[in-house]
Amino acid sequence: MEWLYVLMPIAGVKIFWPGLIILGVGVGIIGGFFGMGGAWMVTPGLNILGFPMAFAIGTDIAHMAGKSLISTMRHGKFGNVDYKLGLIMLVGTVVGFEIGAQMVMWLERIGSVEKVVRWIYMALLAGIAWMVFHDVGKRKKLERAAAAKGEVLDDSVQGIDFASKLHKIHIPPMVHLKEAGIYCSAWLPIIVSFLTGWLAGILGIGGGLIRMPALIYLIGCPTHVAVGTDLFEVAISGLYGAATYTWKGRTELVAAMIMLVGAAMGAQVGAVATKYIKGYGIRIAFGLAVVGCAVSIFLKLIKPWLPGYGTLLDNASTTLVLGLVASMSIYIFMRMVAGAKRELAMKKNR
């Protein structure tokens, strides 16, 4: 089975190349759908396939930048991108990203990057999963209460609503964000983007895993606008991230190119799918994907404590990541096809 493995010349490791293709195509669909580069799956996935963590981070950022740019153009046609908001957030993102990347280099020098990055991932994924499902639970509760009164809950009502409180902080300059329908202090998106950029630099992600929930829950964007705007931000910050990690010698371009071919096609499917699956449907799918990714990382974390089950845990973690990416991609694709069929049927009946 040696032919299933390819040598990565910069990282110096042999990688299961079909796994790279599955990650590329699948995460292209998932990233285009959720509005993020998909690195929250790919960085752990590359590490699980055999890349050292620093190379997994740099390689994923390189593949992510081009794919996110393609998805952004598709979302822009649907009116899902608030370019003004994205450009404002770019200021904080770049500064935060570089600080995070420098921290990774320091952790690598002291030999702690693998352990620290995985634990940060676990804490972050657990927090995001709780927030998403807590939001969905509160929203369902409000829907039941409205139904008991014979009413229908407005789509704009959130289960968790931090944004309305933050919008009351009027520190100049104030900005009006047309596509997002928001009027707030410019410092709100700048501070949020700095914090998400810092975490993105440490974890090797474009920031979508953190920024998409932040755009919804802290800045107050509608879900579909958060998806498109985040992809715009990921594309720009990803290009910067790819440059800085390549300069530091931590990017494996062979793997990035293998994934990018499939990701470019998958991103088109994911972006179109948001036309048919909106709002809380996106959030629930996102929460389930986060939980699955967290479990796969946990399996890698407990391996040192269970040395007799090392191979089993490695295989289980790899299978879970690739299975999660494949199943989520198929689900999104099928929902897109079903939605397109309904749209065509409606046009014929007119």
Map the helices and strands:
Elements: E1 5-8, E2 13-16, H1 17-34, H2 39-49, H3 53-77, H4 83-109, H5 113-148, H6 163-166, E3 174-177, E4 182-185, H7 187-203, H8 208-219, H9 223-247, H10 253-273, H11 280-301, H12 310-349
Antiparallel strand pairs: 1-2, 3-4
Helix pairs in contact: 1-2, 1-10, 1-12, 2-3, 2-11, 2-12, 3-9, 3-10, 4-5, 4-7, 4-9, 5-11, 7-8, 8-9, 10-12, 11-12
Please describe the structure with a list of short key phrases separated by commas or semicolons:
two-stranded antiparallel ribbon; 5% strand; 350 residues; two-stranded antiparallel sheet; mainly alpha; globular
How would you describe what is shown here?
- With about 350 residues, this protein is mainly alpha-helical.
- It has one domain.
- The protein is about 75% helix and about 5% strand.
- The strands form 2 sheets. The protein has a two-stranded antiparallel sheet with strand order 1-2.
- α1 (about 15-35) runs parallel beside α10, α2 packs antiparallel against α3 and α2 packs parallel to α11 (about 280-300).
- It is globular, with a radius of gyration of 20 Å.
- The mean pLDDT is about 75.
How many domains comprise the coordinates?
A: 1
Order of helices and strands: EEHHHHHHEEHHHHHH
The biggest beta sheet reads: 2 strands, antiparallel
Structural class by helix and strand composition: mainly alpha
Oligomer: single chain
